[in-house]
């Protein structure tokens, strides 16, 4: 706890003109005498800390001290603060709140606005799941839940949770599935009836998620499915959604329509994706996919056949 106070005091001194022992004592719920000892510790370490008497006084640091420039640039401070503030709204982890609080000491009233704004909260909030899983990961508790895979199959899973992963604004649980006896990524929106149980696991037995591991995971997923080249024609009325769904590189903007030509996984979700555009899309190729769409559309019509 002392090291956290020392870091907080140092960062506060570097970013503010004065700090008051009483204010820091209230934050950490210790005595002002304890804060005085902390400041003495920093002074003995070579940090040039001075005091000024009076109602507007307090402790301050020599303005020529250069440690501040070794920590973060102004843009980096703002970026870390905005990021931690947004993430702490979704993940109720004390360390995130602490980071937000520490970084707030850097902020000034005339701070230049950041070109980035982060919002990790979701319209359909999954905060409760995130917080339960975060606690289970921290305490090495096994979790169990009902899971629906992308083919619509339901299974009961017992999982050793390793990481929470946010990719493409979608939250996943990365963990070791006891049913499959292997690591898996579980999309948070498909997890139902989540419970944390008392059974423990050894976290050191697992590799934590990394960028390379995540890239390999999705590369293996793509390699395991058959790919097919599809050409789609879209009406201009659905242009905004076309740009929401597809990357700009695969969109050809013609005078009266848009063309998307790219590789897709030959999976049921492809038909669902195309049908989600309603009458705003037409399959140019391949021929078998046009027939699949026609058949699926007929099934929809049949559901409303009152004869």
TrEMBL record:
Please give the InterPro entries that the UniProt record associates with this protein: CBASS_pafABC_assoc_protein, DeoR_HTH, HTH_11, PafC-like, WCX_dom, WH-like_DNA-bd_sf, WH_DNA-bd_sf, WYL_dom
User: Which PANTHER family does the UniProt record give?
Assistant: PROTEIN PAFC, PTHR34580
Keywords, alphabetical: Transcription, Transcription regulation
Q: Which Pfam families does the record associate with it?
A: HTH_11, WCX, WYL
Domain annotation HTH deoR-type: ranges = 2-57
Species annotation:
Vagococcus silagei
Record protein name field:
YafY family transcriptional regulator
Q: What is the lineage of its organism?
A: Bacteria, Bacillati, Bacillota, Bacilli, Lactobacillales
One GO molecular-function annotation for this sequence?
DNA-binding transcription factor activity
